[in-house]
């Protein structure tokens, strides 16, 4: 598995799968190097990780996705650790993410050292758990 910043050639792959972002924001995030593409042995896209900045000063992982057939192989952990190292190199001491309370991802993040930091309750949605990790 390879981890690379997404490029314009990854746009169609991301648009077809990432339903949690306004399409008009994908190209700017690619240009700002805020989306990583995960590539398999055949150099094909197998997932992505997208991030931004909470309060414009704290790295926040917005989305981590692996295509179904590539889950459970440790690729998610690899991309999270890669991102954390990049954020550490940029001088950040804390990173954040979130997940809904009905999703298994909360356990994945806790195993990687993320701690519950609060929650957000929006009408008609499950509780959103906010998680942070000191780098």
Automatic annotation (TrEMBL):
<dbReference type="InterPro" id="IPR000182">
    <property type="entry name" value="GNAT_dom"/>
</dbReference>
<dbReference type="InterPro" id="IPR050680">
    <property type="entry name" value="YpeA/RimI_acetyltransf"/>
</dbReference>
<dbReference type="InterPro" id="IPR016181">
    <property type="entry name" value="Acyl_CoA_acyltransferase"/>
</dbReference>
<dbReference type="Pfam" id="PF00583">
    <property type="entry name" value="Acetyltransf_1"/>
</dbReference>
<protein>
    <submittedName>
        <fullName>GNAT family N-acetyltransferase</fullName>
        <ecNumber>2.3.-.-</ecNumber>
    </submittedName>
</protein>
<keyword id="KW-0808">Transferase</keyword>
<dbReference type="GO" id="GO:0016746">
    <property type="term" value="F:acyltransferase activity"/>
</dbReference>
<keyword id="KW-0012">Acyltransferase</keyword>
<feature type="domain" description="N-acetyltransferase">
    <location>
        <begin position="1"/>
        <end position="135"/>
    </location>
</feature>
């Amino acid at each position: 598995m390879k981890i690379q910043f997404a490029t314009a050639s990854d746009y169609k792959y991301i648009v077809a799968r990432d339903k949690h972002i306004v399409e008009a924001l994908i190209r700017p995030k690619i240009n700002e190097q805020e989306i990583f593409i995960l590539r398999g042995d055949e150099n094909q896209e197998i997932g992505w990780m997208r991030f931004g900045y909470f309060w414009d000063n704290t790295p926040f992982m917005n989305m981590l996705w692996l295509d179904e057939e590539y889950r459970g192989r440790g690729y998610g952990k690899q991309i999270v650790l890669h991102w954390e190292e990049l954020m550490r190199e940029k001088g950040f001491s804390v990173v954040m993410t979130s997940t809904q309370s009905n999703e298994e991802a909360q356990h994945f993040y806790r195993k990687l050292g993320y701690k519950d930091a609060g929650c957000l309750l929006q009408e008609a949605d499950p509780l959103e758990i906010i998680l942070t990790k000191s780098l």
